[in-house]
Amino acid sequence: MHSWPSPAIPEIPGRNGPIHIFDSAHGEVVALTPGPTAGLYVCGITPYDATHLGHAATYVTFDVLGRALRDAGHDVVYVQNVTDVDDPLLARAVRDGIDWEVLADRETALFREDMTALGVIAPDHYLGVTESIDGIVATVSDLLAAGTAYRLEAPDASSPDIYLDLAQAPGVGSVSHASREEMLALFAERGGDPEREGKRDALDPLLWRGARDGEPSWDGGDLGDGRPGWHIECTVIALANLDLPMTVQGGGTDLIYPHHEMSAAQGRLISGEESFAQAFVHQAMVGFEGEKMSKSKGNLVLVSRLRADGVDPMAIRLALLDHHYRTEWEWSDGDLTRAQERLGQWRAALSRNGGPSTDRLITTIRARVSDDLDTPGALVAMDKWVAESLSADHSANLGGPGLAARAIDRLLGVRL
Length: 416
Ligand code: 5CA
Ligand code: ZN
Description:
This protein is of the alpha/beta class. The protein contains 13 helices and 14 strands. It has a domain at 20-287: HUPs (Rossmann fold, 3-Layer(aba) Sandwich), CATH 3.40.50. The strands form four sheets. It has a five-stranded parallel sheet, sandwiched between helices. A four-stranded antiparallel sheet has the order 6-7-8-9. Helix 7 links the parallel strand 10 (246-252) and strand 11 (277-283). The two termini are 30 Å apart. Zinc ion binds next to loops. Residues 43-46, 54-55, 57-58, 81, 83, 234, 251-252, 254-255, 283, 285-286, 292-294 line the site of 5'-O-(N-(L-cysteinyl)-sulfamoyl)adenosine.
């Protein structure tokens, strides 16, 4: 599937050192050590109501991470999926009386426009699950042949459902460290079916769902007609495009269990590798009016709505960057007002004939982003440079504003 046009990344002198980031699996900040090429997989949208500010926070966070890795001298291979067929998307299509493919195409198109407006670097591999059916069928067939997956007849389906025998996957729990009780609760809450009769274990994830009336299905060969389960989608797309262990698997904290636990367990089982990702990195949930912003709750602030109201996307990006990715927060109008004022100040400083030296500014921004993506700290560094610029005559240093603008663009993705 085509992604979107990537913004140019300006050059600046020097480079960053190693990037340190909080790894949910180890529960501590780790130094990323990718070698020449870093592999980044970020879970993409389920396109039925895109792009709210929670999504935007997630993709801007991983965009800053990708920029930091490039600035530290690595090439980055960036992979993202689109869950363009899954239960919540199909349910929304039925509710709204719209064809599921039309809905998915429309919302994915809107997401691409939002990403372009927010200055997010495009993935190198942007793949819908509907484009990845062959690989998923082959993988599930291999698991069946190896005896690590099993069929379960479903009375309402024309072919059986297929589940992973999770007991045969090593290291389950190493990503989330959740207890059995927590796993059971989260599995039920987040798309799993712990109550399904006949499963070997309540937590076994669905790999292939046999075809039902009124649901889209694909020819699965020996699997029978059906469609993929959720977690296997990200496992297969990641394995097809990245070497293991990838550097970072990312997404929001709502994906730690079961999604990242299961996709990693499957990835290790299929590949025989010990580790799926060097680090699992998660964006804290962004809320609105007292609850997690979510499509199912409907309490959404959409990037496209703000853009249609004439809000500068760079102000939206600045508002997001002003919150550390590991801190939960709630969107309010004040966030936008502050960001708009800040953007105005920054642009005023950059339109002057000359500015302060940028040496300390660049060093500080590099230090802040490599310290667990401290973007609020990076913004404060620019605020200081801007205040200094506006408080005195700096016309002797003509190159200052240009270099500051390039640094902010390269490292934080804010175009001034
Ligand atoms: N398609 C799956 C991932 S394979 C999915 O979770 N789609 S989604 O549309 O629900 O979410 C897209 C991304 O945004 C995920 O990484 C998710 O963790 C993140 N996300 C969803 N809601 C929020 C929120 N309120 N705050 C921050 N991130 C969020
Ligand atoms: Zn995913």
